[in-house]
Amino acid sequence: MPVPRYVELLNPGLQALKRLGGSASIAEMDDEVTKWLGISEEEIAQPHDERQTELQYQLAWARTYLKAYGLLENSSRGVWSLTPKGKETEKVDPRQVAAFVRNNSKKRNQDAIKGPDNKIAQAIIPEFTEIALEQTWREKLSATLRKMKPDAFERLCQRLLRESGFTQVTVTGRVGDGGIDGFGHVRLGGLLSFPVLFQCKRYQGSVSASMIRDFRGAMVGRADRGLVITTGTFTRDAKSEATRDGAPPIDLVDGEQLLDKLKELRLGIEIQTVEEVSVIADWFEGI
User: What tens digit of pLDDT does each residue of 89-113 get?
Assistant: First the structure.
C-alpha cells in the first residue's frame, strides 16, 4: 500500500496532538499517527531518502501546512503544539487547507524551492522556506555522516555522549563483541551513576527488532541499560522491542534525532545569526 500523502495526514496529525495533550515531539506525534491509522510495518519502513522514511517526509509537510494554516506552532526545541485556533478546530477540509496555503504562497516573492508535490513553487510562504532550509542542512549533514569511516563515526558518537554528560566513555573498537561499540557512565544529580553500553550503526535502512534483541543479548551481565545510535531509522517492532516489559531497556536515537543533537551541541555545525539594526527616530527627537 502507498504511504498516505501529506493532505491525507492533516486531520490525523491534528488529532494526534489533541490526544497527546496539545503538544508533542515529532517522534511522539509520528508514532501516534501510525498507531491511529494502523499503518503497516512495510509502509513505515518505506524510504524517502537515506536519512528518513517516506512517512516521516509526508508528516513533516503535513505539520508545515497545519502551521501555515494557523493550527500548529513549534518551538526551537522541536516541540509542536496546538495554537488557540488549533485547540478549537476538530477537523479540517484538506482541500481547503491546501488551497489556502497555495494561494497565500502566490502572494509572496521568495526563491524557488521544491514542495511536497515535487513541483517548483516560485512564491513560498515563510513556513515553506523554513522547511526547505531545514532540509538543506539536514541532507548535507546526513550525507557527510554516511561518508565517515566506521571508526570515525564511533568516535563522533563518543564525543556526542561526552558532550551530553556521559563520563568514562570508551569505544571498544573490537569486531565480534556482540554489536557493542562502547560504554560510558551516566551520572544523576552528581551522586548516582550507572553504566550504559552503546552501539553505533552508520546505517541507511531501518534497524530491525532482531538487531535490538541481538544487542540486548550482548548486554547480559555487563549493563542494565543500552543505547543504539543510527543514521537510519527504527522499525515499529524495533521500538517495541527496545521497551519490552521485563527486559533491560534500550534507548534509541534515529538519524533525525542524531542530526538535532549534533546541531544542539554545535558538533560540526556552525549557526550564523543576522544582526538587524533599526533606527529609532523618536529617540533623536527627544534629545
Answer: 999 999 999 888 877 765 554 444 5
Give CA separation, 258 vs 45, 48, 154, 255, in Å.
18, 18, 13, 5
- What are the grid coordinates assigned to 101, written together? 496555503
Q: Residue 59, Cβ neighbours under 10 Å: how many?
A: 24
| Amino acid in the structure at residue 122 | Q
Is the confidence at residue 22, as pLDDT, over 80? yes
Distance of CA 216 to the CA centre of its chain: 24
- Find the helix packing angle between 94-106 and 54-68, rounded to 10°: 70
180, 207 contact by CB (below 8 A)? no
Starting at the edge strand found earlier in the chain, the sheet holding 182-188 runs: 166-171, 182-188, 192-201, 226-230, 250-253
Exposed/middle/buried for 275, CB within 10 Å: 0-12, 13-18, 19+? Answer: exposed
CB atoms within 10 A of CB 81: 16
pLDDT digits (tens, 9 = 90+) for 109-163: 444 455 666 554 444 455 555 656 566 788 888 889 988 998 899 999 999 999 9
